[in-house]
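Example record for the data management plan.
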Amino acid sequence: MFRVPIDQDGEDVICPDCQFFLNISGSEKDTVPTANEAPSTSSSTGQRRVRRKKQKSQASPDWERKSTVARSNSGNPLLWIVGGALLGLIVVGVGAWVMLGSKDEKKSSDDIVILSPVRPVAPILLPEDQMTAEEKRRQKQILDTVKTRNSFLGDGAEVVKKFLNAKTPAELESLVRTPAVTVPRMRAWYATHEWKPPGVKDVAYRGRVMVQGVIGMMVVRLNDFSVESVVLENTPGGYLVDWESWVAWSSMDWEELIEKRPTEPVEVRVHCSLDSYYNRQFNDDSKWVSVRLVYPASERTIYGYLAKDSPSMMVLLADIRNMRKLGATIKVHYPANSVANNQVVISEYLEKGWVRLSAAEGESAIKKKVSIPTP
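Corresponding structural encoding:
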């Protein structure tokens, strides 16, 4: 639990524990029901309707004294019944359309932190004399995170635009993090893969951004209207793009991996999910855990196997169980005398997600290890 000043209703604040932005709800008078909420009624507020008894001495109005015959001639009851039924069908149809639209919107924002509206925010700090030593330490972390988030929406967005609008692969080289490691990989990659500038229509599309420490992820809408995400690191030299996660880089092409069946470990970026395929050299489910491995640019599936007696592999198993589909950076290899091209051993769990965060991987050291969703 943490405290904020009482006058900050409706403002953006940051949780000092998880470092995510939150919004403090405003006063009740400012609350607006959403499209899925029914407007409040008198019964829901605890009020009662009081039916007043008509005084016997009160004279009836003229319209009550008209004959029942005259009222019956005012319209055909059948027409009223048919009209009411049609109106009811229209209301049900509109309600179903709203609910389906809301469901689709929720699906499109899975695993993304929504910060809306997207605008720079000022940190909300408690007076120093009201804070404990721990709260002061947390407040400093909050201030640093706010500065990173604000610059991410400014300087970071400009780097993303340059990256996505670059005309040639050579123009990308000054925009990527860990250049000593990444640039040679890029040159080898674009020797066999064509670079087509995707262009960008919207950065921080619909307010979908995530910032944690020096790493941030920004959802973008490209010129072809597809929606992707770009990961950046805030380095001493400015924001730089994580190119490996953008292309799902692997140390060997997926089709080449299947064809050559290397027995030495190969680094791959894949989506993982639990499976029940046990066959050939991996037919004993008491020794192995079957994992379905999907590479985003291929329709060919490989089955990876975790040895149950490997403690380090159990970390990967726990992460897979916690998510329906886990993006992971792993190492795989084929067993000696492999009899199938779609079955490999998962030999190392490098990273949750597709962003390598270890200092040994590149030039910049990231002190705090964070988990970034797979683009």
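Summary line stored alongside the record: Confidence is low (pLDDT under 50) at residues 23-58, 66-74, 100-119, 359-375.
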